[in-house]
Structures are given as structure tokens and as C-alpha cells.
Input
Amino acid sequence: MPASLYFDSASLRDGRFEAGGIERYPFELINRSHLRECSVFGQGRLLPVLAIDPCNRVEEQVEALSEWEGCYFGFKLHTRATNCCASRLIGSPFIDLAARANIPIIIHTKPVPDFTHARHVVQVAKAHPEVRFSIAHAADFDRTIVAHVAALPNLFFDSSPFLSLCAEYRSQPLTERSQRLPIDFGDPNTGLQSLWRAAPDKLLWGSDEPWTAICSADGTALSSFSYEDEYSLVMSLPEDCRSRIGWSNPLRFLLGDNALEVSIAAAISTKLERLAKLIGSGSRNAD
Ligand SMILES: [Zn+2]
Output
């Protein structure tokens, strides 16, 4: 999910997040285009997840999201792109909306800057057991955070983008790995299985950023993996691991604990049909 167009681009270049972009409120245009693209190009295979910003113009966002309720499958908070800590979700109207619609919230996390740290998501998940949350990017492989994921029924984490994470973490000094899970970053197949064993019912494949390329500031490619590379990795896993992180865990995250007992196809197609109707009706907010 790209950054909001709500912020003034000149201020962003200086590291400030000031209103003045082309959106009246965060993700006003981006969410609309995301819904339209999923409906027009998705052919029933793309499930829209809409971006939120709990730090700015919340009322306007909630009004638009309420109008589209039943047409999307979750919310995404990119803490870095919005300059907003996950803890701002506590008690926010986004929580009420997610609980009412039975949809989860994916949250981007990194150990730095501190306001994007995964411990804030743990805090939110404890405060709101009625909503499912996912910590992105393997929770930095942090033992303490992953223990919370395993213990809290409504908290998940994802492995995205695993091959790039292996490349990134392989190059870190050993001293920085002491608080991390014992993952073999030199062998992604074994490494992903180790990560899964830390919380077998909670790891999701993909989710926040299924694949990516990482460049240094001077444009040098540090890693470059395709969707096919990541897909091949997950398909090379033993059956139990593959089916949990690629199927049953994501279904429970998306649809709730009874996901495997209801008609999954019906639950998904009902929303996609609603979305197609919304786009077809030319709703002002979905244009
Ligand atoms: Zn992310």
C-alpha cells in the first residue's frame, strides 16, 4: 500500500508530515482506486484491504469506510508512512468498524523508529480482544513479541517478504541476533519452518508485502526477489507447515475462528459481489 496523498510532498521531503497533499483526508483517493482496481482487474482473486490513519481526519475516513462496509476484507495501518504509532488505534472508531464487520487489521512494524515497534501492536491486541491484528515482517524475529503472538488468540504475525528478510538479517552482526529466534537465515526453507514452529497457528504467508526488492540509498540492489521466488519457497515446505501458513491461518485471520466451518467461497464471493455492485453503481465515493 503506497503512502497517503494527504500529506504535502515538500514537507515529506524534509521529514515532516503536514497536510497539503491532493487528498482531503488520508487515503481518500488511494482507497477508492484500490477498490476499483481489485474489482475491475481482480477477477474474483484479489481481496481489497483498505488503508487507515488513526492520527489524522479520522471522522472523514470512517464515513467513507462505513459506506463501503461489506466490500473489503481488512484494514492496513502503515505506521511509518502515516507517521502514526499503532497505539493510536486504542479506542478509535476504526476498532468499532473492524469489530462490527468482523475484519482484521494488518500493521506495518519495524524495530526502528521506535513508534513502529511491534510491542505497540501487542498493546493494541491486548486492549481490543474483539479484533484480530497481524504484526508485519516476522515481528523482527523477536522472541518476546512472538511469545505474545502465540499466547494472544487475536494476534497473528506474517513472514513477508521472507527471502528479502533472510538477505537483510544474514548480514547483521551476531550481537544483534541474541534476542531473536534461532532462525537459519542462510537456509530460507529451514528458517521459515523454524519461524512457523514458534507460533504454528499464527504465522501468515505474505500479508503485508509478499515479495520485494530492497535498494540502498545509492540505488544498489541489496535483494531482489519475485513473487514466483517467494511462492516457490512456500511450495517447497512440508505439507503441514505449508497448509497452515498458506491456507488455514490466513483464513482464520481474514474470516474469524469459525472460518473453516462456513462456506469460504460464499463468504468471499458475497463481499466481492457487493464490491462489483458498488463499482458498477458509480457511487461517488467509489469513483
Ligand atoms: Zn510493511
